[in-house]
Amino acid sequence: MGENTGTMDQLLIRRWYNEHGPALLMFARTVAGDAAAGEDAVHQVFLRLLEGRVSKPDDPRPYLFRAVRNAVLDATRRERNRTDLECEPWFEPAGPDEDRERLEAALEELPGEQREVVVMKTWGELTFEEIASLLSISANTAASRWRYGVEKLRALMARSEAE
Amino acid sequence: MDDRELAEFERDLRAFRPRSPRPLPLRRGKVVLTRLLTMLSAAAVALLGMQIVKRLERPNRPSTDRPPSVLYTLPDAHGAPDVSLATLRRAAVDDNSLTEFLDAAAPRLLRAVGGEEMRIR
Questions:
Q1: What's this model's pTM, rounded to 2 decimal places?
Q2: Does any CB of chain A come closer than 8 Å to the CB of residue B10?
Q3: Which of A88, A117, A150 finishes a domain?
Q4: Residue B114 carries which DSSP code?
């Protein structure tokens, strides 16, 4: 790879970071159950790309989600005793704080397998086929998990609002 | 919840923007230094190779008496050369001026890091 090509790749990877970073961080946190561990995994994936330790994917979005998931699972295996310091917000501070906190609390109550599909589909904008391939499940199962997850999310938020 | 309600609720959810990760912890100094050393090493190896070829071609003539057979240039894209033509010629004909040439070329090599590869012709 020439020097100019390398620079272009770096610019492209940085664009991916800005474009997909927020959804990837949310997804990583969902899988890791810990904001700091999730962020470490996202950084690890992008640093590997920037340093040329892995080749640049043709279709970045599914690749990035898969790589982040693997990085989280590898780190989880290595650091089983890591303390969960859940003090970072999930979302940018826009809109009413109560709505955001209600959504964050509802997301944390979702079963893990539904939460990761909801995050990948809704914020990561992956298709059910891409999610299915990433999780080694069928597209129908991915769609069902998303539907149950979103319905439960709405019910939890409505219940929280009524209380 | 029917499909329309699901789609509407998903739109509402997307209105919440996930927090951005912190900037990547890049070790820029180390990367730049590594590249610079790589460039300088490649340049030195190439120049030494050319010197050896020249010597093999004309083994019995004093080097200062003959015109330069090889000219070293650096990329045009980086502006006017910092290395004088005289220095380049000396580097081409005189083994002893190789160090001088590398010293004079260093600022240009530094600018070439992250840009074009150095060309030697």
A1: 0.60
A2: yes
A3: A88
A4: T
